[in-house]
Amino acid sequence: MATSESKTPFATGSNPSNPFLQGPALYALVTAYLVVVPILAIGNMMSNPRPSLIADILFLGLLGSFLVLHKAPVSMTYKGVAAAILLGAVLPFFGTFNQFYMDVMIQIAMFCVLATGLNVVVGFAGLLDLGYIAFYAVGAYTWAIVSTGQANNFISGGHFPLGPEWFFVFLPITLVVGAIFGVLLGLPVLRLKGDYLAIVTLGFGEVIRVLLTNLDRPINITNGAQGIKDIGQPPLFLNPIFNAFGLDLNRAQTVQLHFYVLVAVILLTMLLVVYRLSVSRIGRAWTAIREDETAAIAMGIPLVRMKLLAFVTGASFAGAMGMVFAAKQTFVNPPTFDLIRSINILAMVILGGMGSIPGVLLGAALVTLLNLQILPRITAELEARTNLPSTLDPAQYQRLIFGLMLVLMTIFRPQGLLPEERRKEELHGVVPPDPADIPTKPDDDSAPSSSSPTGSGGSGA
Amino acid sequence: MATQSEAGAISAGTRRTTRMLLNQIFGPLLQILYFVIGSAVILGTIVILLAFLLQGTRSDINLLQGTLIILPQVIVDSLVRGFLYAMIALGYTMVYGVLEFINFAHGEIFMVGAFVVAGFGLMLNSAGILGDFPGILFVIISVLLGAAVSGILAVSVERVAYRPLRNSPKLVLLISTIGMSLVLQDLVRIIATSTPLGFNARVLTPDLGSAIRLATLPNPGGNDINVIIDARSMIFILASIVMLIFLNYLVNVTRVGKAMRAVAQDRPTASLMGINVNNIIALTFLVGGALGGAAGVLFGIRVQAINPYVGFLPGLKAFTAAVLGGIGNITGAMVGGIVLGFLEAFVASYLSLFTAGAFAGANYADIAAFSILIIILIFKPEGLLGEATVQKV
Amino acid sequence: MSLLELQNVHTYYGNIHALKGVSITVNEGEVVTLIGSNGAGKSTTLRTISGLLRPRLGEVLFKGKRIDRMPPHDIVQLGIAQSPEGRRIFPRLTVLENLELGAYIHNSNSPEYRRDLERVFDLFPRLRERYTQKGGTLSGGEQQMLAIGRALMTRPSVILLDEPSMGLAPVLVEQIFDIVQEINAQGTTVLLVEQNAHMALAIAHRAYVLQTGMIVLENTAEAVAKDETVQKAYLGLD
Q1: A contact test, residue of B92, B156, B160, B183 with most A CBs within 10 A
Q2: Which residues of B fall within a CB distance of 8 Å from C150?
Q3: N or C: which end of chain B has fewer CB within 10 A?
């Protein structure tokens, strides 16, 4: 996978005592990677634009560039410039050769937005939201309803469907709609204890899904289980630019490029917002709430307001991304938004590392790749080589794989693949060792110093 | 073990009377009975009043008459749902009582029970003896089988996925239980699809008897109303009651039951009493899992068609029931199950009747359940049987 | 040979070094008291003996056998009972059920069990009056009696008492200490942890003074009570 192959050469790079990976040598090596891999990947595309095992590996290597950039101890300017070139030129160019890879990239970016949003809720504020997909659904259905004739069923006047130019009007609207739903759910439930919150949000997610399925009667708002099709797409506003560059693109490529740009812009905006939040007073308040609610209250942190803010931040971006999703798929139906999607996003956050922005981006990329590319590729390769019965098709094992991923990660690496420093300790057991358990396990010398012993025994009296 | 507590007390006039014993075993059931009657009367009155008020809004049928005709059947349905949720809710509540976390995988433990009876029925069928198998024996064997499989599974899950995390933050543990739930769903799916059971498994049973007519009510406007209960629902209700009696005996009377309650209240101190806390926790999972599995078997027998995902919704609602009754409280879980079952069955049956089919009641019953959950958690998080009578396992 | 012995015990809470090489000896039939201020490590010492905590270094010996790697429920079986700090009775179980749990490791059909129960009820007549009451509804003093009684029900050869006088009215404190002496007279060895050094030294045979995780003084109770620093620091005398 992208992680292991690209991480290894630089694992030691972060160690400044290694003279080889310092200064010019380091930059040369990183630059070499960033030049060679894209050339190989694009070259391969030029000779044969169809997906293949080689193309898949090169594609992973290409995406791994970001990880290399993140891990390598190069200057921020270098990182920024390299990332901009990759995002702005290399990846979209690569994507024009093959719609499938382009789609994977767009989906990765979309899930990055969702995972980052959920990370604000789960990772920053420590609130387990299992109904996160509901906000996505709300955004998706909002656009689906107004950009088709569906809205005429309950708003008279026949203004609908709205044209593509309305897309950019509705992008902020869905952001707000997501936020409103965040407040609606958040206000009553955010006083609840952690595990109750999880189950209530899960229930909320289900309620939204059931409503979407059933609100075709008495008034047809959502078109029920059939879903809504022919959803409007955004205007192709970049066409003049493409034409100016003399790019010769077909319709599908143009549409994909537009989504690429759109999603990338939303993602970058969101990352900026979330990053600024996380280093602000608000971010510190979230950390305080996560680590010790009572102490946070004692320090004068407005608990519910801060939790609500986390909830709303996550919800609003999910709403906007839901709209983009609806426009991209041109079709939505209720099963798209079931619990397993929420858990999928949760898996991204856990895999990458709760509370770590680079971590959840990696998590989102890995899980999306696993879903869209790696599992189908393994299946294809197995089918080509062996006589595999269709029931053993790895692509069908999503639940098993994500379930195992969640269990194994929580047991063996709760801080995730790319953890945030502070969280490492915290997730390895804030709860003091339970005396009753001590006999079953060997001494844990790594227990954090922050832990306070159970009960009153800690005072040592 | 039965006599241990009595023995406690020969001295000094502290003998435990038979009455106390009976009270410990049947007291909770009496409470359930109160709630059954209460729910039936209150909800029945509400729908009849509504029918009066809405009389005439529907031209096609006589609303009042329609309401009355289906009422007995709705109550039977309420009981079945109620006991289903009660049995599953016990698993949540017992685990919560001891370890204070929500075991998301419990719905899947229940589902496994349903697959056990499907497998058992299929085996008997392929051996050609299903048709002649005595119905009652079939039910007993499959309930025991399902309870054993699910109980052992629950213990293994705890050992593998939860115990290593006992000192981790609650959030992390919760995520592990979600993961386990997905793993179990898929494992069962793999097993089911690679055997003749298939993804949509049919639960084959011998003939379990036909519907029983409980009573005939005179109906002045036409045909008499027969109150009928089908055999499978009857089996469900009776078997649930038997198991609840057994559970109350186990928890309130036996030595291990006392140890379970002690562990729930104070783990370190329980270990100072010589109680092996890990064993008691495993036992809690065993008992909770076994009840869930037994409920799964009965559910399978009743609905006769299952798939690997059938555990999710009942699991979620049973959790609601556990919260409704007061999580951690055994009697509360049973009562919560009953109340939720009644509410749901009434919503499911009467919502479409009163709105002339504009709202499909069956679907909105789910929403009713979750709304109850949210309302309870916000306004009365300690549940129906508030702290005063809490008897935590 | 001593009944209970701690040799150079180091116990940690996470990275906090709570006991820094504590060595204590308790001989059969003695009342030994461990005094010290808040946070000195007194409760930690008892929790280490009963297995609730594991020492990282050092040994705990009971009748010459190492017990520091054993789980608490096995240590109880050997005959070490603890009445924990803060009493920790089971609030939603009745008085009788609490006592029954104390006898969890014994066959409760046996005549010995009945004798134990009788003994506890004789020591604490209040418990007899309230045996059907829920533990949580008892007063502080009654809860303390229940905690001691429950520990006695395990039929211990040594009983570890953690601050039995804490939060009790002076009359009750007096009563509790009388009972501790009575228990000792009936043949149970006592290791008593106390902040009320005055009372503890009055009934103990020997005493240890614990300060920030280390034993700073060890002698007969009489001698310790006369020690100048002890008088200043723990007995409030000038």
Answers
A1: B183
A2: 273
A3: N
